[in-house]
Amino acid sequence: MGINVYTGLMGSGKSYEVVAEVIVPAIAKGRRVVTNVDGIDGDKIRAYIEKNYKPVPEQLGEVVHVTNGDVALAKFFPYYDDKKGAHTDTIVQPGDLVCIDEAWRFWPATGANLLQEHKSFFLEHRHFTNEQTGVACDLVMMIQDMSTLNRFVKNVVAFHIRTHKKISLGMPTHYSVSIFEGNKQSKAARISVELRKYRKDIYLLYSSFKGGADGKIVNVDKRQNMLARKKVWITAGVLLVALGIGLYSSNRFFHPKRNEQSTQQGKPQDASGNSAKQSAAQSAKPTFSDAWRIVGTARFGTTSYVVIADEAGRLRYESPSMFVQMGPQTIGEIDGAKVTRYSGAVVHPVHIEGKK
Length: 356
Hints:
P-loop_NTPase, 2 domains, transmembrane helix, eight-stranded mixed sheet, four-stranded mixed sheet, transmembrane, rod-shaped
């Protein structure tokens, strides 16, 4: 496969990412890892795998630590000569995983000529396979910026992984990992972006500082943390208040009846006031008349009337405008009560006997 390059500023997590996601899994698969990462400890890596991998692999790989001087040697990588003869009497053996930190020191963008042996490995390293496993060599480089790497190497980069520490977001224990295809950092080339958290147990497997020193990184300017600015919190508070008002107004607009009912229910009222209002509402609702019913219609000239009568036979002439649905279902409101053809008191027939 091609070359994988991990980029990121100092302390951003590129070495951490290579140890956690490349070196440790490779050791767990039984591979031999050649690297110049400071403080890399093969024994600690194997102990970490035995503790965290279930089930524990039967055969673990090994870590071969090399110096920067070793990396610069012509016989560091296996290579092919001009006659296509393979040379494997080198530090890196066929099938090895090679992880080089600060790769710009050995293959800079300007001011240096690449060794012919190194060029051969960059272009043909997949042909150097392990005799037992058949696994080919892989090469991983770590630099701060892709522009500092030699153009010859950049042209054979398969994937570019960029790490970024989230200090500006107030998350110093987290970092982002952006994966790009090739050596370009464009949206079209970006494959994925992931937020990850630094794990303390990974830091024990290598050293972030030269010579294994126990160093510490501090922020010299607190303004680097965006969340430390008062303006950000004030703006966030204003936006939250505006959002709350907007939601409340929308609810009032789209559900006015429900809000009115809840408002009325929330008002304290005494028992007598409630009963009085309820009785008033009930009395205000018209009922069917016990006195009057419709008996017919009458017309005097051009004026029409609806005739109603009571139990005693008294007649009243009312305007048709007080009634609706003229016909058998005519109904109107007289004296606060509904009057129809079937309202009024029931008239009982009276039988009178004559003298014999």
